[in-house]
Predict the 3D structure of the following.
Amino acid sequence: MDIYLPIAGLSVNIFVIILLGGAVGMLSGMFGVGGGFLTTPLLIFYGIPPMVAAASASTQVTGASVSGVFAHMRRGGVDFHMGAVLVAGGLLGTIFGAVLFEVLEAWGQIDTVINILYTVLLGSIGGMMAKEAWQSVSATRSGKPLPARKRRHHPLVANLPGRWRFYRSGLYISPLAPLILGFLTGILTMLLGVGGGFIMVPAMLYILGMSANVVVGTSLFQILFVTMSSTMVHSLTTRAVDIVLAVFLLIGSVTGAQIGARLAQRMRPDYLRLLLAAIVLIVALRMALGLGWQPDEIYTVQFL
Amino acid sequence: MIARWLLILALLLPLPALAQTVVEPKLVPDVSQRNINIQSRFTGAELLLFGAIIYPRGVAPEGQVDVAVVLRGPTRPIILREKQKVAGIWVNAESIDFRSAPAYYAIASSRPIDKIVDARTAAIYELGLKRLQLSPTGEIQTSEVRRFTNGLVDLNRRDGLFAEAAGAVDITDQVLYRARLTIPSSVPEGRYVAETLLIRNGRVIVADDSVVVEISKTGFERFITIMAQEYGLLYGAFAVLISLFLGWFAGYVFRRL
């Protein structure tokens, strides 16, 4: 069954969109990531204009993360104090991202920048995840436990001026560190339509050194507010949020997320992380190929 | 003075006389749909452009007549960018500004355009994809304009926004003609003008562009577009609320299961 997307300005197969949302939702349920890093490229691949894809994907991530935030809140897994600082940075980031978006578009390099960002970010983070998951899998196999990692924030963070106490995170650090982290992910949310969880979670663990039991909940909390802000900023500037597209993506992804969460309980976490790393690396590879190989379309049209 | 008047009279007189001996045929063009509404189930449209050729005294002349129909969408200014390989990666390197690129252009003719009119006539009437006048701005070499124009034509052709179909106009008894044109779902709203040309002996005898097709979003699609364009704040807030609701609702339902 086909449906016309009023903002994207073309008709798509409704089942493809719901399935796409469902697959991404399943992954997000299994791994606790928003899945925007998959939605945006897949939508573009399907023929949705890149700007509409990024804008609508961020709207979809809002819906995909809301039930996760509630779940983590119920078990005290959200550091609201830390979350508020991250959100503040994220809001500034989305506004800055909107300006950046316009500058890059006028310069004609927005799609190249998006491709490079995807390749570099997903490539490096996927590589890190794969390495770590592999180590942990082989450790369980050989029966030798890995040495416990010391939780410490990065030396750079320690050098920032002013310190606040973040009780639930177990941290006494400068609020500038999470503010900058929030700001950077806010930019990514605006440009790529990603929630940024796949960057946020490792950064919270290894750069800020937050205690692990609040990392995912706080990251989801930040994603929830920053994607909301990104939807608002897109609605006011690029006007590229396609609500019909977002709703059908959501119908798929919220259902998929619940199924994924159930599936995840039956799988070993190490293998789960290895699987996620593989998926992330495949997307990164696909993006890298897109940069290096001759694209199908040499020409692109920008309307004035 | 009188001599001059006589001269003018002499010049004027033959014209009506000539017109009476060689009265041009008339075209009565029509289209299957004057309004195309874009609704949720819109997947593109097929237009039938048809009509009749009315000859003076009802007699079709000797020899073959040809018909070409052109459907043009609204024109708009665009920037066309071209990717090139720079330092190992494909990036947008060169670009061109076109002041009037048609959003849609389809031409159908009874025989290939090159066979029925000469190059000059084809250029004047903009017949055929390679003769589109896109009005590039700035100082650009002709070869560059050609390269970019070909690029745009190729891109839009694959998206179904540009089409050229020789032999797609059927003419019955030299009197009735019809052509079918497809419109993809990705066309923009606006006024689409259908021009019908009657061609004989390499000459355009009649050109009629009185047929207009309006393509517009209606109902829900129109409402959403207006909201997104004019009331961004409200639209954004609504998008956020609906995604929050759907996310919460799914969590709620699945916890009950």
